[in-house]
Amino acid sequence: MPEFSWEETLYLRRHYVGKSCQLHFGISPLKITKASKQYMYDDKGNEYLDCINSVSHVGHCHPHVVAEGQEQMAKLNTNFGFLSDEMSIYAKRLVETMPERLSACYFVNSG
Asked: Interior CA angle at 37 toward 87 and 86, to 5°?
């Protein structure tokens, strides 16, 4: 994939991504180019502690999570509208760690 300047990326974002997908720091958004563990890095190499994304429990690019995700996606990558052993077993395991009144899972892809 070609690398674009901050200005080019901002132009593309504003013209091809829906306005409801708002940028953080709208006046001068960060162009994040990579991440590792709890840090993100911008196009100038500056390091930022990630307190925004939903990866704080494992960090970015955690080797175990990446390997498990790759293994699952090589087998099946679909939504939860179909029967899946993996999803059902995961829900059972998750519920077993919760108080009794929290007895069902509702899977979503974010927030």
From this structure: 10
Tens of pLDDT, residue by residue over 47-78, are 999 888 777 677 888 899 889 889 988 887 77
Report whether 40 contacts 56 (CB < 8 A). no
Residues 25-54 have pLDDT tens digits of 888 999 999 999 889 999 999 999 988 877
Q: Which residues contact 55 (CB under 8 A, 6 or more apart)?
A: 35
**Under a CB-based contact definition with an 8 Å cutoff, are residues 31 and 43 in contact?**
yes
pLDDT the model gives residue 76 = 78
The H-assigned helical ranges of 17-107 are 63-75, 85-95
The pair phi, psi for residue 70, each rounded to 5°, is -65, -45
Rounded CA gap, 33 and 43, in Å?
A: 6
CA distance 81 to 75: 17
